[in-house]
Amino acid sequence: MMKKLALFGLVLFITGSIGVLVFRNEIYQIGVGTEIDERIAFTDAEFEMVIVEADVADVRFTPTDRDHIEVSLTGSVDDSSENVLTVDEDSQVLTVNIKQDQMFFFNFFPKSNNLTLEVKLPESFTGQLEANIGVGELELENLMLTQLLTKVNVGSVIINQVELDSANVIANVGDIDIANVTGDWSVEADVGDVNIDLLAPIDQLDVETNIGNVKIHLPETGIEDYQLQLQADLGDISLNGDKVGTGDVGSSYIQQSTSGQRLSVYSDIGDIKIDWKQ
């Protein structure tokens, strides 16, 4: 019980923090800031890995019909911010950094920060992506990758039409929406809902949330071939609308299989729903 109360207290604290972060421009805005529009094309380089580090910015990974990677940063920043966008080319690794203020800890409420970083990837790029974002939304769409590693402290994650071998997605505070994907996935959300729509059967899917609902849509093959390990400490579990594993407190459901496909979902506070076409 004490754990649940502590978690609810954490939710209230985080909710207030999010409100301050989201509306900080309106509350503390003194000036309009400086407009920024920077674009870099890497025409003479081939990369196997792209890393993005951003303190406060929305980040989007999208495809391009060109044969090279393009990076653009648009929006507005504080007048005091300098060299917001920096890039580093080290062998076959491209690192993109967004840092709005060297003294960000002491300048917690910037006057006017509204940045969007877009990384356009050519069809020839099928390597590894890594993104670490302090505050901001992360989007990926229409990509083919080997591996994806992402972490967002405050902000949502939206992934659509992505084919890959493996992915690790973490959002400390924010929803995670994943649709039309392939590959093995590990998904973690401290506070936020998780929605996953699989394009094809996978070997392994691990989902964990502290506070939030989990909804997973499987391909038409259904759930019979999956080894299931589902647990909701304070919530319900349903398979195609039918509640299963209901206990006195919380729910748990285990299904054995020899196919090698595994689906593991854990929710501390929240419901687990898995459905598929029959």
Keywords:
278 residues; mainly beta; globular; Putative adhesin; Toastrack_DUF4097
**Count of the domains:** 2
Mean pLDDT: 86
Radius of gyration, Cα only, in angstroms? 21 Å
Going by helix content, strand content and strand pairing, the class is mainly beta
Protein name: Putative adhesin
Domain DUF4097: 53-274
Describe this structure in words.
This protein has 278 residues and is mainly beta. The protein has two domains: 31-174, no CATH class; 187-278, no CATH class. Helices cover 9% and strands 58% of the residues. It is built from two helices and 21 strands. It has helices spanning 2-22, 24-28, and strands at residues 34-42, 49-56, 58-64, 69-77, 85-90, 93-98, 114-122, 128-135, 138-144, 147-154, 157-173, 176-191, 194-198, 204-211, 214-218, 226-234, 237-239, 242-244, 251-255, 261-269, 272-276. It has a 21-stranded mixed β-sheet that branches. Mean pLDDT is 86; it is low at 23-31 and 102-112. Pfam families: DUF4097. InterPro entries: Toastrack_DUF4097.
State the gist of this model.
The protein is mainly beta. The protein is 9% helix and 58% strand. The chain folds into two domains: 31-174, no CATH class; 187-278, no CATH class.
